[in-house]
Amino acid sequence: MPLYEYYCEPCNGIFEELRPMREASEPVPCPVCYKDAKRIMPTSFAAFTFRDGYPRRIPDDGKYWHLGKKVSRLVTSARPNEHPEVNKPEPKKRKTKGEKQELQDMKELAAKRELVDLYGNEIKPEEVPEVVEQGRVVRKGTPRGL
Ligand SMILES: [Zn+2]
C-alpha cells in the first residue's frame, strides 16, 4: 500500500498513513486527537510549521521521519536517501593487504611511541586498530589543522 500524508488542523501537524490507493483521498483519524485529517500533497509541506527545517510531524515527540520510518536523528550523510537507523549498515569490508601492512607499520610506530591521537595522547600498539578505525590517529609532529 502506498504511503500518504495527512494534515491534522487542530494539532497543526502532519502524519503518514499506509492506505489503499482508492481510499487515499478519504480523511484519516489523527493519531493524536482522532479528528479527521485531510490528505495533503508533499508539495504543500512548505505551508506547515517547520522544526529544524522539517515539517512538524505528529505525534511530535522530538523524532524525525525518514521515508516513513521514525528516526531519532536527521540524516547527516551525503546520501540523504539513506539513514543509518533505516538502512542496514554495509557489511564490513575485509582489509586489503595494503591496509594490513599500514596497520602493522602504525603498530611499529606506536611501539616507538611516535603515534598520538587528535588530543596529543600517545597511542599504544594494541590501541592502533581501534583508533585507525575511528580516524583519530595522528602521527607525532603532524601539523594540526590540516
Ligand atoms: Zn490531531
Which short descriptors sum up this protein?
four-stranded antiparallel sheet; 15% helix
Structure description:
InterPro entries: Regulatory_FmdB_Zinc_ribbon (IPR013429). It holds the Pfam family Zn_ribbon_8. This is Putative FmdB family regulatory protein. The chain has 146 residues and is an alpha+beta fold. Among the domains are: 58 residues, no CATH class; 43 residues, no CATH class. It is 15% helix and 24% strand. The chain has a four-stranded antiparallel beta sheet, with no helix packed on it. A two-stranded antiparallel sheet has the order 5-6. Strands 7-8 form a two-stranded antiparallel ribbon. β7 and β8 form a beta hairpin. The radius of gyration is 25 Å and the shape is elongated. It starts with a strand and ends in a 7-residue tail after the last strand. The mean pLDDT is 74. The chain binds zinc ion. Zinc ion binds next to loops.
Give a concise summary.
By secondary structure, the chain is α+β, with helices and mostly antiparallel strands. The chain is built from two helices and ten strands.
Overall mean pLDDT score? 74
Count of helices?
2
Poorly predicted spans: none
State the helicity in percent bands: 10-25%
Radius of gyration, taken over Cα atoms and rounded to an integer in Å: 25 Å
- Give the overall silhouette: elongated
Total number of strands: 10
- Biggest β-sheet strands, sense, barrel: 4 strands, antiparallel
Largest sheet, order of strands side by side? Answer: 2-1-4-3
Bound molecules: zinc ion
Estimated share of beta-strand residues: 15-25%
Structural class: alpha+beta
Element-by-element helix/strand order: EEEEEEEEHEHE
Distance between the termini: 51 Å
Biased composition (Basic and acidic residues): 80-90
Region (Disordered): 75-102
Pfam families: Zn_ribbon_8
Domain Putative regulatory protein FmdB zinc ribbon: 1-42
